[in-house]
Amino acid sequence: MRAPGRRPLHVVRQAEVGTASGIDLHVVTSQVARAPDRAPALEAHIGRYDGSSVAFEAERQVAGYPDLLPELSMARADGRALRGAAPHDVIAPVPADPIIDRGGHWLLTWRSRTDDTEDAAFMVLTACRIWHFAVERVHSSKAQAARWALGRQPGLSAIRQAVQQYEHDPASNLDDQGIAELLDTVLHETTPHSDSPAAGTR
């Protein structure tokens, strides 16, 4: 797999990110944007993660990249065009089901990694985003999704701990049991055959 060219790598490395924790740059063809399938092709990805042990990654020409689906959906709903047509005009609607299915994949993966202290807050807050989308069919920021999830289940302590670490105190810790409880709750509420009224509804 070839890495992207030097120019994009340099731009991402040197970019000012403000209050963000990094950059995720995904490059796709117009054909993929107009008709994404469940594992759309990715021309290039460059990721910069400030403060993470990963730090920087780059890959090119990935034949099937299912994590691109929520990215396309978010870009269509809330993206801005720096040049040319609006995202809504160049990105086709992405069905909700494959986005929710992919979220379920990550929830199950994270369920076995509740002791991952470096990514604990990311897992919890992204799980809240997955949950919010599955119920309301809207994309939200980590902070917005956390507030929504706490409004639905105020007793999930891991959410408050994740917000504290993410927004105020990077050195604070999350409780493993609380993370597991949050992930189990989201899995229960987003599994298609769950008896929860939230599953697959608005």
- Structural class per helix/strand content? mainly alpha
Number of strands: 3
Regarding quaternary structure, what we see is single chain
User: Which spans of ≥5 residues are poorly predicted at pLDDT below 50?
Assistant: 194-202
Estimated radius of gyration: 17 Å
Mean pLDDT over the residues: 90
Largest sheet: 3 strands, antiparallel
Question: Order of helices and strands, N to C?
Answer: HEHEEHHHHHHH
Give the total of domains.
2
Helix proportion range? 40-55%
**Judging from the principal axes of the Cα atoms, what is the shape?**
globular
Q: If strands are numbered along the chain, what order do they take across the biggest sheet?
A: 1-2-3
Can you put this structure into words, describing what you see?
By secondary structure, the protein is mainly alpha-helical. It has 2 domains: 85 residues, no CATH class; 95 residues, no CATH class. The chain has 9 helices and 3 strands. Strands 1-2-3 form a 3-stranded antiparallel beta sheet, covered by helices on one side. A hairpin with a 5-residue loop joins strand 2 and strand 3. Helix 5 runs antiparallel to helix 6, helix 5 packs antiparallel against helix 9 and helix 6 runs parallel beside helix 9. The longest helix has 17 residues. The C terminus is likely disordered.
Considering the chains and any ligands shown, give keywords for the structure:
202 residues; 11% strand; AadA_C; mainly alpha; three-stranded antiparallel sheet; 49% helix; transferase; globular; 2 domains; 9 helices; Adenylyltransferase AadA C-terminal domain-containing protein; disordered C terminus
